[in-house]
Amino acid sequence: MDRCSMLTCEICGEELLLEEDMRTHLVVIHLEQELRCPLCSLSGVSYDELCFHISCAHPEERPGAQGPPRFMPPSGCSAGTEAPQSCSAEDSWVTPPTNSSVPTDSVLAQHNKALDAGGSPPGESATARSTKTSPQCVVLSNEDNDGVKTEHSEAKQRRLSPRKEKLFSCPMCALVCNSCFLLQEHVELHLQEQRSHEVSAPEVCSPASTSAPGSTLCRERRFECPMCSVVCSDSFSLQEHVELHLDHAAAGAASPGSDLKLAQQLQQQEEAQQEREEFKKLQRQFGLDGGGGYCRQMERTMDRAVARGLMSPAEFHCQRAEMMESLASGADDGRTRTQGVLRALYEYYQTECRDSVHVWLSADTDHYCSSAGDKGWGCGYRNLQMLLSSLHTIDAFAALLQEKAVPSIPGLQRMIEDAWKEGLDPNGASHFNQRLQGTRAWIGATEVYALLTSLGISARIMDFHQPSGPGDTHPRLFEWVKQYFQQSNRSCRLPPRLVHTSMPPLYLQHQGHSRSIVGLEQKKNGSLCLLILDPGTSASDTRKLLSRDSVSHAVRHVRKFPSSLKHKQYQVVAVQGPLSAEEKQISILNSRTLRAERIP
Length: 600
Description:
The protein is an alpha+beta fold. It is about 40% helix and about 10% strand.
């Protein structure tokens, strides 16, 4: 047989004829015997460990230009790659099988690059490819070529039969090991190579440097910037590089104070929205939301009464016709009016209430209560009706009143608008947008003053802007009211116990409501008590003052002691007398900056 057909042991160089003999030689001579490193004193290691040791510890001692001896395992040279035609001639080590059908210790990343010249399919085993293409490699199979098995070959085959073992893959290349210690030594070589590159090469790997010799790490794992062509050596450098891109883009897109400006803009928009909502709420509260005035509210109330069965359709149309007639005439229909209240109080104090030292009553005044058309907002108009009803009974003022009857609420709204047109209280007119008719707007002391001045009647506004007594009471208010009613009998040294004066009632305004002061009572202990008519009191309760049987109980709702008036601020409108044309013009000019007299 020719020497070219002989099989040569790659370890010791012994030549054998048959593959079975070569397999037995490898197992008995090289695997079962103790292995020693030929280059140092290392011994007592496995074949895999010895191969890895020689490759790592003695790279410079490799014999010849072709590197260390090469051995082919039965299943190929490396895992995770295509099976090569033959082992690489440069810096490659191929490990024989230990107890696994898969190669357990692959070579470094540089070996086994030659492909099968015959184009072996991926599913074909490495053993078959090696048998076809490499006569220089020893192929160990489960069967002899001639199909003959011996007891010795069966025993050796059982020792070489594959067993499933845990494999350890290198995280930095394609190497697969069956021992964690071998993998550790292999990875340490990678780290040593990386540190040497970091010392000798710049921190950022350029595309040119990746193709240079010795740049295996950059070639194996590249960290390329997604925003430019720069390739970094590690993930941390890439992160810093990308953050520079993002910071630059953010600086170009926005100015340094843009966040602050945006926050201020959002805050201003939110505050403006809150102001609009508060303004709308105040408009609804004071009847300026365009929800209709006295007439519409009255119609809606009657509609609900008809829907609930409280009013028949005939009554609805009858009351609506009367309301429209009253609105057309401008005079109040008198449905809410109660006459003779002051006369009833005078008779009561004559016969009853002997504990009072002095009692002062205003001129005759009719009581006007709220109706369905002005409930919740018409108290100021009703108190103004009470004041006008009293002025009609006083000769000094009756001639100044244009209307012979007390105007209705829409009529009073029209009269106040006429007063604004004359130039009275321009600030108040601007507040209501020059319009009261058809609204449910509240009025106060300044609107009453403007209406009286337009009629040629002098008036004063007294402002008790803060409490003047203990417990948030207003004793100064009571003293001022006493002085007001005492004007009618100053000539008397000893005023009588009960005085029915010719003084008009006082318009009393506080937050959210207004009432009319029609008298004052002084007790034996010196305490003062106001007599007040409230438009919130119904007509039926007010009429109890007219009955001798119920007047003693009803008068309790009229009396108001200092402990009952604890609002922070009170304003009083007091009528003084007629105005001449010249005095009226002066009052109109002065009303441009309308100011109340503050006490204290």
